[in-house]
Amino acid sequence: MTQPTDVRGERLQTALSLAISGAPVLPLRAGKTPFGNCRSCADNACGGRPNMKTPGPCTCPAPCHAWAAATTDPDVISSGIWRRAWLRASAVAYHPGGAGLTVVDLDNSDAITWARKHLPATRTVPTTRGEHWIYRGATQSANAVRPGVDIKSTMAYARWLGFGTGTITALPDAVRALAVKATPPVRTAPQAITVPTPVEDGTCPHRTPTYLARGLAMAEQRITQAATGVHATVYRTFLAVLSTHGRCGCLTDAHITRLFTAAQTKGETVRHCTTAWTNARTALGL
């Protein structure tokens, strides 16, 4: 069914307004899913996009790569290829982590009751079956951290449902702990690993070791949960880790081994891991 022109235009204007406020946006098709990758990017043959702050190997102008395509660039959002996507879009989504936010997605009344007992009050947005609780601060994303509760922040997208009510408060440690706890354990690697020398040419900007620990846990989760395009996922994840921690000297052999181990559990060889790591360092000029 064709959507009225004013509805399509309203979604584009909503996306532009969100982008101006600093929230990376992307269109969603029917079923609340992102648009599929174009032919050139199918199965992440292009290498994909690692995150929204570090340019990746893919320069595709289309809204490809799901959450990683989200942008705050008004020229991209209103470009011809994106306009065609907005014509078919059923909703506007945004990348919470890219905006420095975390969305606790409460899918039913029981989940809402739990949140009211255990989480600090913050801005709430009604959804079809529950509520989005929005906090200031980013963390790793994780699904089903509790019955009916998902956490959407980095490497994820959330549907835009309006501004909601209440004042946004700081992300509580309870939510961060749920996300970390949901990270699946890493299995022992089937073979010995020789890793490259860590990069150590900068001053560490991180306030606590937990920042690195959470980043590594998120990276391992990203790799171990990859259903397709494992090669590309490994490369993008290595690139994302290096872009954040590669210049400060935080990464040790033990940290890099953890990433290689996660990749090996998905069938990657040591040779491919080493090549992906080297290519990621080269892409970042390390």
What does this structure look like?
This protein has 286 residues and is an alpha+beta fold. The protein folds into 3 domains: 5-94, no CATH class; 97-181, 2-Layer Sandwich (Prim-pol fold); 209-284, no CATH class. It has 9 helices and 10 strands. The chain has helices at 5-20, 74-77, 80-88, 109-118, 173-181, 209-224, 230-245, 253-265, 270-284; strands at residues 25-29, 33-34, 91-94, 101-106, 123-126, 131-136, 142-146, 149-152, 158-159, 169-170. Strands 4, 5, 6, 7, 8 and 10 form a 6-stranded mixed beta sheet that branches. The protein has a 4-stranded antiparallel beta sheet with strand order 2-1-3-9. Helix 6 runs parallel beside helix 8. The relative contact order is 0.13. Residues 185-190 have low confidence and may be disordered.
Name the shape in a single word: globular
The tally of helices reads 9
Overall structural class, as computed from helix and strand content, comes to: alpha+beta
Proportion of beta-strand residues: 5-15%
Order of helices and strands: HEEHHEEHEEEEEEHHHHH
**Total number of domains:** 3
Rg (CA only): 19 Å
Tell me the helix content: 25-40%
Contiguous uncertain segments of 5+ residues: 185-190
Oligomer: single chain
Mean pLDDT, rounded to whole units?
A: 82
Sheet having the most strands = 6 strands, mixed
- How far apart are the first and last residues' alpha carbons, in Å? 50 Å
Counted beta strands: 10
